[in-house]
Amino acid sequence: MATGLLESIDRSTQLAGHNRLALLLFRLDARQVFGINVFKVLEVLRCPPLAQLPGAHPHVRGVVDLRGRVVPVIDLARAIDCELADPNASQHLIVAEFNRSVQAFLVTQVERIVHLDVSSLQPPPGSSLDGYLTAVARVGSQLVEIIDVEKVLAEILGGSPSLSDDMVGEAQRLEAAQLKVLVADDSRVARNQIEKVLNQLGIEAILVADGREALERLQAMSQAAPPSSQLLMVISDIEMPAMDGYRLTTEIRRDPKLRDLYILLHTSLSGGFNNAMVQRVGADRFIAKFNSNELAQAVLDRVRQCQTAVA
Fold first, then answer.
1. 100 and 116 in contact (C-beta within 8 Å)?
2. How confident is the model at residue 311, as a pLDDT?
3. In the predicted model, is pLDDT for residue 192 greater than 80?
4. One domain for residues 106 and 184
């Protein structure tokens, strides 16, 4: 099963840039189906015996040695407050890379990979889990819930650290205050993290939850003046419902009123593949989540670039 899934994951990378999404479906209990972006999945395996980690977060069940690499195992059901119907059911690990780190998620069952149009994703309905969901999707007769893994990890690892004094001082020297940045990200946690960084630089963050909302906001702004004269830059996640970051970038570059905007793609999907896609769709820069000082440095680099162009 795992070999076939990984082959499907390799084929699914061809969807990138086409506003399509491939989800690996899994269950935490017999009732609900969940999904995770296959781009983040490294492998799937039956859960081996785990080594205990003294002093670990309650949601970390232990660690596993994967070919010499020690990987923490997160009990996903416990992390999102999902009560298991059968705690003794056989379990699997979904090993995934998020925000520059590798972790394994403990799940009850791994099912299959499905391909969806991003525009078919909907905001999560109100429920006890809605704080842990970024979107839902209808797959046949099933409602698939997409977990906000960034929120899960933030609760385990803690919030992003404050910027260094040197970084804040540099922002003051560059007089970055009063500038504005449009931020598009479907994760509430990620939006809050980015806003915190920008606010420490004295920059105002305009927050939207997906690419379509970002594009509509930019088009509305363009009625008064070119958005490039109103915004320092656009910071966008890549995987979002309604319109992903690749499509958002493409649409911005196609619009004569928007095409001069500086676009930074900021995502938990890391690696050379994304760097190639950034160049293909016309973004200016790519940064893997989440390092506060690295994001701040990218923003200040853009401030310097603008000041040099004016001088």
1. no
2. 60
3. yes
4. no
- Read off the amino acid at residue 41: V
Q: What are 68-126's pLDDT values in tens digits?
A: 999 999 999 999 988 765 666 669 999 998 878 899 999 999 999 999 988 888 888 76
Look up residue 196 and give its two tokens: 């915190």
How many whole angstroms separate alpha carbon 174 and alpha carbon 201?
Answer: 10
- The structure's pTM equals 0.85
Same domain, 149 and 11: yes
Contacts of the segment 249-258: beta carbons below 8 A, 24+ positions apart: 249/281, 249/282, 249/283, 250/17, 250/281, 250/282, 251/211, 251/215, 252/215, 252/218, 253/281, 253/282, 255/219, 255/222, 257/219, 257/222, 257/226, 257/227, 258/218, 258/219, 258/222, 258/227, 258/228
Separation CA 231–CA 209 (nearest Å): 18
3-state secondary structure of 198: helix
Number of helices and strands in the chain (H, E): 10, 15
| The predicted structure's pLDDT at residue 40 | 85
Residue located via tokens 């232990």: 62
Q: Containing domain of residue 103, as a range? A: 2-157
Task: Please report, as a single letter, which amino acid is at residue 69.
Answer: R
Q: Which two tokens stand for residue 116?
A: 């969806």
Residue 248, classified by CB atoms within 10 Å of its CB into exposed (0-12), middle (13-18) or buried (19+), is buried
* Same domain membership, residue 12 and residue 121: yes
Residue 138: CATH number of its domain: 2.40.50.180
Query: Which domain-ending residue is among 157, 192, 221?
Result: 157
* Residue 286 sits in the same domain as residue 242: yes
In the numeric block, which tokens belong to residue 144?
């698939």
